[in-house]
């Protein structure tokens, strides 16, 4: 198979991004849980809550450090692998990424230090303030990254300058309050909260199965189940908002998620299960639920959702306009001072479709002279592979509803004071909680796959194709850096897992005797006296 610089650069960024996001969700969620638990400690003065904060804070610290380490290289990749993209969007990305750097390295790092080393140097309220600043800084750091990413999904508040060949900010307010970015932020942060809640729930369940650290495990399970239940519901609601925004701004992404090849009468049906065939451009098999897709994506009964084939035909018109814009742009670049106003006017009239003109470059050096076959090929290149998009989305959604079920069950047992029943009669639920620990990460990675792969072939939706954004590197150079990143990140992942397991096995400082030894717990009968431990 011939190696392609674009695909290799995409693979490298995908690998580093997916590795990095193994650490981000847990950091987002644990920071809020730590602040909540320490608030309870300050309000009640009960030392057990302080011990809980210190234990879960240790796991947070391990994850936080490795998250920062893996995140540093991602911004450098913009200059290394995506030089033209960096030039193209520097005016837009400069402010959000700079603010994110301030949030991450000044706000977070400063208060993380106070969190770990300030227990004996700060008052209770002072330390609590530092903990909340860690939580706020962590979440606001994610906000600025997602504003930048949301702009790539839905570029607003900026215009293309043909003389500088850059996007230039026309309204920072529009960039900041981009509806796609805001929807992505709240959805992503809520997913992080669910990740932390399921992590805490699973570790607490493991302690209960072991009969260790029961007082801390029960309290951790109670707060994790309540926090996780609210967060899981939020993820579903906010995910619906993201789907609605996709229907407004990224129709091809939505059509591929649903494997909707043909436009259906409103309201469209939902494909529960399907077997999409890209070669035949149809679903070989599908189980449909009538009306559901139309109601979810449009929130109406009469709004039509265009199918893939209709969107491809629409792309052909945009490609023809883009070819005209591309031709005018070449004339402007060749002689910007002498070019006539008629050429600039032609460019302005077709500038919105310039990105579609770039889609022809893999097929011809002169887009304005492209044949119908070349236009057809370019138009179909706007369709991501349907099968992985279809099932990645459904894996994510299935996990989301499973999290709602799990947190509901454990919230019921914790709120009704029946957690001991789990240890005695429902141990299988505790086992499920332990084995469910990896699922939030699977859901998060599937969500990012849908978001990023579903945008292809665009690095900036409808404006700049990924193929036009890469640096002038050789295949060997990218392969070497890809191998280096994979080796480094894999090592960091092993370090993370090893340290996590080590400190989970050590467990928290109980500060008191165990409530019930495992053997005695196994022989406890509700309503009867507990037999003494042997």
Automatic annotation (TrEMBL):
One family name in Pfam for this protein: Cyt_bd_oxida_I
Major site of localization recorded for this protein: membrane
PANTHER family on file: CYTOCHROME BD-I UBIQUINOL OXIDASE SUBUNIT 1, CYTOCHROME D UBIQUINOL OXIDASE
Keywords, alphabetical: Cell inner membrane, Cell membrane, Electron transport, Heme, Iron, Membrane, Metal-binding, Transmembrane, Transmembrane helix, Transport
Q: Which organism is it from?
A: Roseibium aggregatum
Q: What is this protein called?
A: Cytochrome ubiquinol oxidase subunit I
**Spans through the membrane:** 20-43, 55-73, 93-117, 129-152, 185-209, 221-239, 391-413, 428-450, 470-495
Location of the protein in the cell: Cell inner membrane
GO terms, biological process = aerobic electron transport chain
* InterPro entries assigned: Cyt-d_ubiquinol_oxidase_su_1 (IPR002585)
Query: What family is it from?
Result: Belongs to the cytochrome ubiquinol oxidase subunit 1 family.
């Amino acid at each position: 198979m011939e190696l392609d610089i674009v695909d290799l650069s995409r693979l490298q960024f995908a690998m580093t991004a997916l590795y990095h996001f193994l650490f981000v969700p847990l950091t987002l969620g644990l920071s809020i849980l730590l602040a909540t638990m320490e608030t309870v400690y300050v309000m009640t003065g009960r030392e057990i809550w302080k011990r809980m904060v210190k234990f879960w804070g240790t796991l947070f610290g391990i994850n936080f450090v490795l998250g920062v380490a893996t995140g540093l290289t991602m911004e450098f990749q913009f200059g290394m692998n995506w030089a033209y993209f960096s030039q193209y969007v520097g005016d837009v990305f400069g402010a959000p990424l700079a603010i994110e750097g301030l949030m991450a390295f000044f706000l977070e790092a400063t208060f993380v230090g106070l969190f770990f080393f300030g227990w004996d140097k700060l008052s209770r309220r002072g330390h609590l303030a530092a903990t909340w600043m860690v939580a706020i800084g962590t979440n606001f750091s994610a906000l600025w990254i997602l504003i930048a990413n949301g702009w790539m999904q839905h570029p607003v508040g900026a215009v293309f300058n043909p003389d500088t060949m850059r996007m230039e900010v026309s309204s920072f307010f529009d960039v900041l309050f981009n509806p796609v970015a805001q929807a992505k932020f709240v959805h992503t942060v809520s997913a992080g909260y669910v990740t932390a809640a399921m992590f805490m729930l699973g570790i607490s369940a493991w302690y209960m199965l072991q009969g260790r650290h029961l007082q801390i495990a029960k309290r951790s399970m109670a707060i994790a189940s309540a926090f996780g239940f609210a967060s899981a519901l939020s993820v579903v609601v906010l995910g619906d908002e993201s789907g609605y925004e996709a229907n407004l701004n990224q129709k091809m992404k939505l059509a591929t998620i649903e494997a909707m090849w043909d436009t259906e009468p409103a309201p469209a049906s939902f494909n529960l299960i399907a077997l999409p065939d890209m070669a035949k451009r149809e679903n070989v098999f599908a189980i449909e639920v009538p009306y559901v897709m139309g109601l979810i994506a449009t929130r109406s009964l009469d709004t039509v959702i265009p199918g893939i084939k209709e969107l491809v035909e629409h792309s052909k018109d945009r490609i023809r306009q883009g070819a005209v814009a591309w031709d005018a742009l070449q004339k402007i670049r060749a002689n910007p001072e002498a070019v006539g106003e008629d050429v600039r006017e032609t460019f302005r009239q077709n500038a919105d479709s310039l990105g579609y003109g770039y889609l022809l470059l893999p097929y011809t050096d002169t887009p304005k002279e492209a044949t119908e076959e070349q236009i057809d090929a370019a138009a179909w290149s706007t369709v991501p592979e349907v099968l992985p998009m279809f099932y990645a989305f459904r894996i994510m959604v299935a996990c989301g509803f499973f999290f709602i079920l799990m947190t509901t069950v454990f919230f019921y047992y914790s709120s009704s004071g029946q957690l001991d029943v789990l240890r005695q009669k429902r141990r299988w639920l505790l086992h499920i909680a332990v084995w469910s620990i990896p699922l939030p990460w699977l859901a998060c990675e599937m969500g990012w796959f849908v978001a990023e792969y579903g945008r292809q072939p665009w690095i900036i939706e409808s404006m700049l194709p990924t193929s036009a954004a890469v640096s002038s590197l050789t295949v060997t150079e990218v392969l070497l850096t890809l191998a280096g990143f994979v080796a480094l990140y894999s090592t960091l992942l092993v370090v993370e897992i090893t340290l996590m397991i080590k400190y989970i096995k050590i467990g928290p400082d109980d500060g008191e005797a165990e409530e019930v030894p495992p053997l005695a717990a196994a022989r406890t009968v509700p309503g009867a006296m507990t037999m003494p431990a042997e």
